[in-house]
Amino acid sequence: MIRRLALGLALSVSTTSWADGLPVDRLYSPYVQPLEKELEYRYIQADGGLQAPDGLHVQKLGFGAAISERVALEAYVIAADTQFSDRIEAVELEARWQLTEQGEYDSDWGLQLEYEQDREGDERELAVSLLAQKDWVSWQGVANASLIHEKQKGLRSELETRLALQARYRYRAALEPGVELFLGEDYQGIGPALYGVVKLAAGRSLRWELAAIAGLDNDSADQAVRLLLEYEFF
Prior knowledge:
There is one protein chain. The chain is mainly beta. 6% of the residues lie in helices and 61% in strands. The protein has one helix and twelve strands, in the order αββββββββββββ. It has one helix at residues 2-15; strands at residues 37-48, 52-66, 71-81, 90-98, 108-118, 123-135, 139-152, 158-169, 176-184, 187-199, 204-215, 223-233. A twelve-stranded antiparallel beta barrel has the order 1-2-3-4-5-6-7-8-9-10-11-12. Strand 2 (52-66) and strand 3 form a beta hairpin.
């Protein structure tokens, strides 16, 4: 069933137009850590192309918690503007479901649902994403394939897709280099990334990610940078 689901979503990626906007964002692992809670901050900046001709800054602040051994929920407030915004523009809710036990198959699988709505309620977005991860001896690969339904007031709704891929070398927990690829409507980008986890007190850690993504064609933003800071605790 899981492989049929993966095949179906992959076919939708190949036959549906790529999603609007800038798809550069964090990539999700399919795993859920029981009893874990987290505070998360994300910052994304881009310039150029169709996505950010005047520059774009997006900030997200969220809280998440595992509510069972396989299900986690997260909520975010979002600020986005051509300059740093001082007010909330949108809210986002996420639910992630770990479909398989780690190591049960060649790849591990998860499913994520996301709902985003702007402050005035004029724009809504619902996304379902298939999450996959595969580990080799010193490498780790992650794939997020998303099917997205967008609705704007006064306009027809759209069905779109996105694909994000990540490969990282597991050098050490505090520093792992990697590369990320993002595909969306009118956007193709690739670039280097760094990841790390710093252990704090018992049951507490700080996860960080930093990536610099370069556009691959004239329609794509010339450059995009994403930063993630996540405080995890039990």
